[in-house]
């Protein structure tokens, strides 16, 4: 379940001349295991990259084959989402961009089908990033929300994988990508609805086993910053509403996460979907996601984590010089990124 920690360096450069407006905007697309996101990057201010962001839960890894093959229904949901995003990009005159594929696409033998959808609908090649690159991009974005120059660990719980990155203001120093995620763990462990106590216990035991020595392997404990849908959803549930301005910087304590996990795990999915702040499409996987967050907090011996709305999308913008290309290439194709030179 665990890949080896790796050292990380190399600072992001962004694009020249991006301190103000970018006209037309640059599209940054994250094809994730549970959701697909579009960031129309319009410029950079003192807080970092700015522009409208959209998220659509597509459940790309939902009911994937044992070998990781993405199901036909999931490809249909991806196609519908990409068609909408493509229309938005064309309406804004987007000429440059990048589409990043993460865990579900990395695992999929039929990744070329994903690439064809992205190429046909968005006019972009699909760039499949390694767990290490995914972790570095998430760290670069999340670091924008960290005050001071001290160390921090960034936690990115995705649908198919979880990334932990430790570093300071100069950049990341260690990272690990774990083959655990909210969708993957739900399908592997939580068959009952609501999940049975023994299912939750087995999931937690296996998470603890996967996380043992992980934190030491990337440099030791540090304050935790959480990014992406699982963590922002937990913040929204705690607040009773999803408001990005309130979610960003929100602090979730270990006790509050345990309380929410106990409450949500006792509800069937249909009732969970009615919780204020919880997007209904995330109701089936939030229990596993929250269990991962709780396990990581214990692994880093943390009492709380700070939530950041800055994440992989911002990191990709910061690394734009090394990632983006023109919209409208001749043939949809799959590219890979094992590192960021």
What report would you give on this structure?
Mean pLDDT is 88; it is low at 1-11. This protein has two domains: 21-131 and 313-337, Nucleotidyltransferase, domain 5, CATH 3.30.420.40; 146-311, 2-Layer Sandwich (Nucleotidyltransferase, domain 5). Strands 1, 2, 3, 4, 5, 6, 13 and 14 form an eight-stranded mixed β-sheet that branches. The two termini are 27 Å apart. Helix 4 (131-142) packs across helix 13 and helix 6 (197-211) packs across helix 12. Helix content is 39%, strand content 23%. The chain is built from 14 helices and 14 strands. The longest helix is centred in the first third of the chain and has 20 residues, at 72-91. It has helices spanning 72-91, 103-107, 111-122, 131-142, 182-189, 197-211, 214-217, 228-239, 244-247, 254-265, 269-272, 286-299, 312-318, 320-323, and strands at residues 21-31, 35-45, 48-50, 53-57, 96-101, 126-129, 152-157, 162-168, 171-178, 224-227, 251-253, 304-307, 325-326, 334-337.
Radius of gyration of CA atoms, rounded to a whole number:
19 Å
**Average predicted confidence as pLDDT:** 88
Instruction: Indicate the structural class.
Output: alpha/beta
What CATH architecture of the largest domain would you give? 2-Layer Sandwich
* CATH topology (level 3) name of the largest domain: Nucleotidyltransferase, domain 5
């Amino acid at each position: 379940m665990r890949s080896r920690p790796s050292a990380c360096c190399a600072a992001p450069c962004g694009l020249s001349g991006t301190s103000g407006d970018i006209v037309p905007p640059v599209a940054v697309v994250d094809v994730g295991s549970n959701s697909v996101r579009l960031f129309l990057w319009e410029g950079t201010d003192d807080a970092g990259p700015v522009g409208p962001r959209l998220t659509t839960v597509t459940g790309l890894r939902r009911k994937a084959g044992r070998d990781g093959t993405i199901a036909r229904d999931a490809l249909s949901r991806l196609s519908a989402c990409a068609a909408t995003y493509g229309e938005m990009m064309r309406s804004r005159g987007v000429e440059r961009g990048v589409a990043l594929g993460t865990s579900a696409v990395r695992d999929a033998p039929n990744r070329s089908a994903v690439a064809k959808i992205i190429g046909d609908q968005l006019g972009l090649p699909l760039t499949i990033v390694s767990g290490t690159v995914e972790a570095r991009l998430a760290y670069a974005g999340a670091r924008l929300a960290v005050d001071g120059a001290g160390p921090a660990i960034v936690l990115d719980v995705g649908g198919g994988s979880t990334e932990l990155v430790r570093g300071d203001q100069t950049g990341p120093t260690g990272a690990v990508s774990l083959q655990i995620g909210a969708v993957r763990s739900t399908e592997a462990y939580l068959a009952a609805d609501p999940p049975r106590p023994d299912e939750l216990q087995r999931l937690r035991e296996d998470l603890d086993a996967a996380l043992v020595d992980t934190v030491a392997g990337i440099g030791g404990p540090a304050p935790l910053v959480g990014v992406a849908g699982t963590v922002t959803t937990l913040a929204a549930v705690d607040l009773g509403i999803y408001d990005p301005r309130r979610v960003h910087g929100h602090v979730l304590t270990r006790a509050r996460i345990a309380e929410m996990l106990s409450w949500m795990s006792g509800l069937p999915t249909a009732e969970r979907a009615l919780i204020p702040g919880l997007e209904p499409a995330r109701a089936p996987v939030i229990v596993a996601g929250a269990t991962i967050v709780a396990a990581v907090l214990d692994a880093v011996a943390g009492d709380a984590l700070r939530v950041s709305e800055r994440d992989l999308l911002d990191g990709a913008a910061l690394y734009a010089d090394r990632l983006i290309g023109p919209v409208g290439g001749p043939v949809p194709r799959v590219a890979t990124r094992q590192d960021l030179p």
